[in-house]
Amino acid sequence: MANTIIYPLASHYGLIRVFGEDASKFLQNQLSCDVMELTQQYMTIPGCYCTPKGRVITNFYCAYEGKESYLLRLPRDLMDITMNTLQKYIVFSKATQRDVSEDYHLMGIQGAGGGQLGEHAHKEGAIVLELGEGRYECWLPHLMDELHESWINSHPVGRVSEWRRLQILSADAEITNDTTGLFVPQALGLDKNGAVNFKKGCYPGQEVIARLHYRGEVKRQLYYGVACATRDLPLGSAIVDKNGKKCGHLLMTVPIDNKVDCLAVLTHPTDQMGIKVQGADDPIVSLDIMSTKPLVAAAIVGEGTV
Fold this sequence. Notes:
Layout: E1 5-8, E2 13-19, H1 23-28, E3 44-50, E4 56-64, E5 69-75, H2 79-90, E6 96-99, E7 104-110, H3 114-124, E8 127-132, E9 135-141, H4 145-154, H5 160-169, H6 206-214, E10 220-227, E11 238-240, E12 246-256, E13 259-267, E14 276-278, E15 285-289
Antiparallel strand pairs: 1-7, 2-5, 2-6, 3-4, 4-5, 7-9, 8-9, 10-13, 10-15, 11-12, 11-14, 12-13, 14-15
């Protein structure tokens, strides 16, 4: 497994456990995904939590632990806003939420041996997401410390920024604190990877999201681009066209060599020449759009387990 790289992700992601007699009912009424589809232990689906206006607060992966207990994996910088918003409604149900980030090792795996590592971890009781293109994500409870240590000691260890670049190249769109509340799910392609279920009942923002799906046209969608910059660019930065008109925002960025790989949410760029990024305190830099068509967000392979 010499070509398999391990990525410790606990500094970037956190976990919220929602449990109790009404946990499934509560989450079904709050999230865009259909948690009732999680019929087997450790099954996982993507989803998002939205404002009443249909803007994504955070997107996540939701795993079913069994016995009315669920885990939500999301960026750490959105843990507080997500838990505070959920708390406004959970008090009216027989459910409880808890930050259990410190109870797990969150690991990314990339490479030819990823499937074998993921399968072994799954048999030991870990939650494993098969993300496609040789990428896996494992949530190892601390009872599996020995397995975690063996992975770290026997494989090359990558950086979170390298994992983020793999996400960008796979169109695995992710909201962070700098971009929360800016986009509808369709602008991120989340309506095409199972994160939004259009047949379930109501949840915050459902009316807006459904109306856009059935009657409207998404004005902005996800594109891959490369910015000519020697350092990272602020997430959420405005993107302007050659006439200086605002046409989108930066969603995700990773600097590499003398450029910055980006996922950007843009109006359909019929003319891709002259597009620039305008940061609040940074000089304007050019942005080359590399994808001629909107990207589709990555989907879990095999219902989230190997």
